[in-house]
Amino acid sequence: DVKVTQSSRYLVKRTGEKVFLECVQDMDHENMFWYRQDPGLGLRLIYFSYDVKMKEKGDIPEGYSVSREKKERFSLILESASTNQTSMYLCASSLLGHLNGYTFGSGTRLTVV
Amino acid sequence: GESVGLHLPTLSVQEGDNSIINCAYSNSASDYFIWYKQESGKGPQFIIDIRSNMDKRQGQRVTVLLNKTVKHLSLQIAATQPGDSAVYFCAEWGTGTASKLTFGTGTRLQVTL
Fold first, then answer.
1. Does the beta carbon of B99 lie under 8 angstroms from any beta carbon of chain A?
2. Tens of pLDDT along A68-92?
3. Do B42 and A98 touch (CB under 8 A)?
4. Does residue B103 sit at the A interface (CB-CB below 8 Å)?
5. How many angstroms separate the Cα of A2 from the Cα of each of A26, B46, B59?
6. Quick check: A106 and B98 CB within 8 A?
7. Backbone Cα Rg of chain A
8. What is the per-residue pLDDT across A6-47, written as a single tens digit (0 to 9) for each?
9. Total structural domains within chain A
10. I want to staple B44 with a disulfide (CB 3.0 to 4.6 A). Which of A43, A65, B36, B65 is the partner?
């Protein structure tokens, strides 16, 4: 069963901590994405990547960075976590090219206290 | 129906009835559309897609209708079941060099017994 796996379902971190959210896909997809999901705001794109070592800013990149050292793994980094980064984080992947749907992970619910 | 904004529309239907979830999209050049279902605590899952050269596509108990004239998309669920309770998102694939899926804010479907 092909899938996107996010390493943690729930995380609680303190303000100012450096936080790593990990995502791995086993479908050999070129594209990978990080979204955050907040009530009433839908899915907002943070960063995405079309290839290893490549990254592009999404709609809300401030306060985040990403790393893609291997094709199957895409990491989201909160350099200094803040309470307004408390959210559900969703990773997704897709094949390169037009007209391909995304496969999502189950999400990581991050709480920053 | 679904629209960009802070409030998540809710549709309440009785078990066994048909459900219709609506979505207004913004980009007249969009040529691919997807409906996703997100159950509580899980990531979005692909339900059905439709390309812009079609106006109707049917799956198992689900039908997607596309009206390009008024930029409207709908998801019909036949004989709604309790397991259909979830948030439903439409997504559109725009054109251009940085084309990617753009998601609506979602509609919550509540199935009553």
1. yes
2. 999 999 999 999 999 999 999 999 9
3. no
4. yes
5. 6, 13, 21
6. no
7. 13
8. 989 999 999 999 999 999 999 999 999 999 999 878 899 999
9. 1
10. B36
